Amino acid sequence: MLKKKKKYNVAVMGATGAVGTQFLSILEERKFPLDKIKFLASERSKGKSLNFMGEEYAVEVLSAESFEGIDIVLASAGASRSKEFLPAAVKAGAVCVDNSSAFRMDENVPLVVPEVNAHALEGHKGIIANPNCSTIQMMLPLCAINKKAPIKRLVVTTFQSVSGAGQNNVLEMESQVVRLGKKDSHHGIGEHNVAEGMINNFPHQIAYNAIPHIDVFLENNYTKEEMKMVNETRKIMEMPNLPITSTCVRVPVYYAHSESVNIETESEISRGEVIDLLKKFPGITVIDVPGENKYPMPILAEGKDDVFIGRIRIDESVKSGINMWVVADNLRKGAALNAIQIAEKLIEMA
């Protein structure tokens, strides 16, 4: 367990990556009670430095000896590195908040969204898992509604930004847009294609396209990403048998994931009651004025901490159901912010 202190020594694993960069800015924004901070990354980042709170810090190469004197580890270096190095961090006395998928479904590791299930932190064994980005943003409205009208079934379709796949994928989208922009504008049907060499990370062209495939396909024909949403939702909500089906789509958007969420409840609940519940729930902003075309969009959520919800309406195809549109910045609430909120909750509980 974390010891009570006025200030804490923190190590950031994967400090030079997209989420690692967000860790730095959010720690500063939230005035996290830092004593010392250490930035860790792979050999590729050897010799680099990072500016944090007006000072330059050398990036250190991650090793099993990196955690001496560290109280809290914020990790976003990938599942394999988390599995390799976080046990060493725990052995050195640190509490680790891991943004990878390495420990999410381990029954001995809490999977936490602080607004939803902070109680799961009690009795942790040194590692706390940060959920998948798309799961995190959906948890807030689900929890808000479930307290009033227990959830019976979920159907979710995600529209996930390219930044969720890493910075190299953002660059791939940009290069494809540039390539297509140089072509003759008078295209025929089916001619809006980039050269084969421009497709490297995604399975297909992502510019001006939508790819209904995130992560690998499993034997049940769902993708790994889709089953993450199913299994993580059940674990966080402590509803192991909750019927859930998910479709995850990659779209050519820089930042922020969007989700169409259909919630069937055990008892009827009105649109007004849903809006009231959402407005009262921490971390949620409701934008829902259909007549004025006001609803959440990725460009509005980018760089923001809240989960934005709109297009709230009764599902007329079932006795008791609600449709909603859920948008959040995948690098902030979907990753770095949620992890830091977990660390803040651990400090509060110390």
Detailed description of the structure:
The chain is α/β, with parallel strands linked by helices. The protein folds into 2 domains: 8-130 and 335-349, Rossmann fold, CATH 3.40.50.720; 135-161 and 210-330, Dihydrodipicolinate Reductase, domain 2 (2-Layer Sandwich). It contains 9 helices and 14 strands. Strands 5-2-1-6-7-8 form a 6-stranded parallel beta sheet, with helices on both faces. A hairpin with a 6-residue loop joins strand 13 and strand 14 (321-328). The radius of gyration is 21 Å and the shape is globular. The N and C termini lie close together (7 Å).
Structure described in brief:
The chain contains nine helices and 14 strands. With about 350 residues, the protein is α/β, with parallel strands linked by helices.
Measured distance between first and last alpha carbons:
7 Å
What form results from the Cα inertia axes? globular
- Tell me, what is the CATH class of the largest domain? Alpha Beta
* Sheet with the most strands, sense and barrel status: 6 strands, parallel
Q: What share of residues are in beta strands?
A: 15-25%
CATH superfamily annotation of the largest domain:
Dihydrodipicolinate Reductase, domain 2
Domain module count = 2
CATH third-level topology of the largest domain: Dihydrodipicolinate Reductase, domain 2
What's the SSE pattern?
EHEEEEEHEHEHEHHEEHEHEEH
Count of DSSP strands: 14
Binned, the helix content reads 25-40%
CATH architecture assignment of the largest domain: 2-Layer Sandwich
Number of H/I helices: 9
- Placed side by side, the strands forming the largest sheet appear as 5-2-1-6-7-8
Poorly predicted ranges: none
Q: What class do helices, strands and sheet pairing give?
A: alpha/beta
Q: Which value, in Å, is the CA radius of gyration?
A: 21 Å
Report the average pLDDT across residues.
95
